[in-house]
Design goal:
This protein is of the alpha/beta class and about 280 residues long. The chain is built from 10 helices and 10 strands. The chain has one domain: Protocatechuate 4,5-dioxygenase, Chain B. It binds 3,4-dihydroxybenzoic acid and fe (iii) ion.
Amino acid sequence: MARITASVYTSHVPAIGAALDLGKTGEPYWQPVFKGYEFSKQWIRDNPPDVIFLVYNDHANAFSLELIPTFAIGTAADFPIADEGWGPRPVPRVIGHPELAAHIAQSVIQDDFDLTIVNRMDVDHGLSVPLSLMFGQPRAWPCPVIPFAVNVVQYPVPSGRRCYSLGRAIRKAVESFDRNLNVHVWGTGGMSHQLQGQRAGLINKVFDNAFLDRLIADPQALSAMPHIDYVREAGSEGIELVMWLIARAAMSERPPRVVHRFYHVPASNTAVGHLILENT
Ligand code: DHB
Ligand code: FE
């Protein structure tokens, strides 16, 4: 049986990817950001997953206003790195896990969630920056990754409640896969940020830290928070945080072990938040 042993949460700020790719991680601005992930890189070397189910959002690179899937599961054997305007990031292409992805699609769709099945998809910074933060700069990513794209870019986006129940359905799907696999579920994006309009640059440390507390201790209550609260408190792009509820709900009902918690401002326009939770 496949089992979810841990979940990882992290922001996906594209400038973090650029800092890595351009060799700037030791610069005073970036040094504290990467320091927050040193523990995580060792932890994942010590606790290597067989597969990562990576919940992220595309930023109009794989999809556009022509086609807006609310939830899209990548079932392909591999996923090229997207060209976001200045060439693809110099990182390894992402190897998928078509068997587990197809099984999850089967199980979750039969559980009444209408997933879009994607057999060809370029993956952007939303997916590649979290991989870089956790694994550094390897020649190949150490395990297969199932990309799971959530629309948080174009309204209407899914509710926290919907994301939470989807996470539970994903847990059930993984646990019914008939192979011994250690699966990590990652929730990415956030934390507070607004990239547009009069409030561009908005950061809300109080909201972000309360979100982390509630995500750990009472995610079901947190899932009832309406969109307007995310947007008001965490900025228009803070809505990316609903994706963290999918990963959190994929964890067991028992309280998790908090292995690592990190929060840092500034990084580009975004508050960087990071958590590692283990199932007990
Ligand atoms: C930034 C953050 C994001 O989440 C994103 O998708 C693009 C830019 C930023 O902080 O610059
Ligand atoms: Fe983003």
